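Today's session is about reading a structure prediction critically. Students often jump straight to the picture, but the first step is always the sequence itself: look for stretches that repeat, for charged clusters, for runs of hydrophobic residues. Only then move on to the predicted structure, which in these notes is written as discrete structure tokens rather than atom positions. Here is the chain we will use throughout the hour.
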Amino acid sequence: MNPVFKAESVVVVGVSEAIDNLGKNVVANLVNFGYRGTIYAVGPRGGEIFGRPIYRSIQELPGSAELAVILTPARLVSEMLEACGEKGVRWAVIETAGFEESGLVTGVALEREIMATCRKFGIHFVGPNCVGTADTASNLYTPFMLFAAPLRRGKIGVFAQSGGVGLSMAERVCRCGLGVSKFVSMGNKLDRDEVDYLAFAMDDPETEIIYLYLEGFKRGREFAELARRCEKPIVLHKSNTSAASLTIAHSHTAVLAADDQVVGAMCRECSIIRVHSLSEALGVLKGLSLPHLKGTNLAVISRSGGHAVVIADACTAWGFGLPPLESPIIDLAKSRARADVICLGNPLDLGDIYDLPLYSQLVEKVLQQDNIDGVVFMLVSQMMSEGQASRELLEKLSELSRKFGKPVATVVEIPFEERVRLEQNSNTPFFLDPVEAVEALAVQVRGRKTTPEAIAPPKPPEDGDTEKIEKWFVRIRAKNRQPLLHDALELIDICGVPAVPWRMARDLESGLEASRALGFPVALKAVAPSLLHKSDKGAIALDVCDADSLRSEWRRLEKISGDIAGIVVQKMVPTARELVIGGKNDPSFGPVVLTGLGGIMVEVLKDISIRLAPVDVQGAMEMLSELSGSRILGRFRGMREADLEAAAGILSKISLLISRFPQIREIDINPVSLGDSGEGALALDARLLIDLD
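Below is the predicted structure for this chain, in token form.
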């Protein structure tokens, strides 16, 4: 993808001398910002722009170009790509709109055309329907809007599906003392998608922090696998979280493991920092740009006592310690105080000291204190006369931060005019809110990347009886229907998942026989395609204790639905603590596995943990520990600890099943009854949805 950012020659297709021509803006940005490569302009009317000829066709160019920027009507894009291919161009930025995003059949057809043309010539491209790209080192800018100034050069790569959001973030980054390395508006992601951009950013020496704004994933699983190996911090702003699923959920797992929850689980698993707004993203980026904390002890130094209290509260909330400052630091502050009216400590209130150069001396001494890992410095100044001194102080604090390798999160509360001047000229990140500064430092701890070996995907559990499972699928598909309860129970039996003893009965006599064999009391569960949630329709009879009761309940259950296939008879077992264990094949991320507190309240409580499948037993144990209600799985009001290892074993086996057999769309085991430690776990019910094709 290097030609998109470092091409030594660019052809802009769709240029004219008209005032409102967008192609002309591309050329203007390249010229104004000092791009040193060759610039060609192409437009059917010809003419001249910025002292350069506008060629009437790509064929007329005196030479080839490494990169083409295309802004023609959608119906002409394929033709332009054909001409580019014949001229030797192999990379393009297609900014034209009017393709699939239009919602029209013609737009989809046009996308097929340009893909066919690009495959013919081996052309790769960004877009279509995008704003463009930028590289602040080479000054290769392709956006179609006229920039007032180039983006500040920095180390943050901004890769956004939305051009508007991407440009907003790039501008904000440049106005808070940071800068941009690369900018990409992805558009429709027809050829290059989030995986390609992440792979590029991981290897780009000019990019140290990766910001992505996405509205959807094309290759979520590959993205996750790549992110898991990435040693650079990744900040993901994933929107479009409220879109309804395109398919009806047939299980608790499908309801609970909604698209956005799977994205959140992927982020936690792959050490991606997820944000939900531009302002949150900006705070995170500022925090990641500071030297990294080596511990969790901070010093708070503030010119305002009230702000110091606010910062101290935030430090406590985020788990930071505030150790006492050493005596020489306190003594220095006291020696310059106007009156002995403030009790000095940590936080260090400098409200009685009007000596800005002294502030940097104090910060330097604090940074030298061994048990201080970072500083939050609050500068409050409403005096315009301190403007120059304030700017110099901020630069000095930045130098000290780099010198000692410890973060100094500087918060400014200054006049508006001074803030604007700071935004235009500061070369170091600063904060406008004290709590934001503390949260930014907390992100360093929360989002710290571990080594690739430490975050390697887990080893899958031992393989089950694959041959028997494959025969099960053949048998079910031959029936041309979705699996029923007894089918699902049979499958988990094959997989080695312990289940309460059960039998399928087609008539009353076989039901009585099954009950005597299993031993009363038993549970009866009507089996029918229409009985998705049996308890909602009264299709379950529990604690059936003798033959007479069984006959009565049997007759009741038979009348519930016209498509009754039989009744499953199960041995009644006592239950105290229950889980749901399930999995599904996510459209973007493939197989995922879920667990949570189970039973009939599962969709009400929504206390769940999700992972990409498969997971090993250790990973399954971690999932169980993440549940908000995990306390009731331990020792609780005289109850012994539940058999979590047995539950983890079931979870691991289900994760392997869903990952090895992609024809499974959804699987639910709910509830799984947990015995006390050492007593095991038993599946009481199962539901399955598969692809029948």
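Discussion point for the tutorial: Residues 244-257, 451-455 have pLDDT under 50 and may be disordered.
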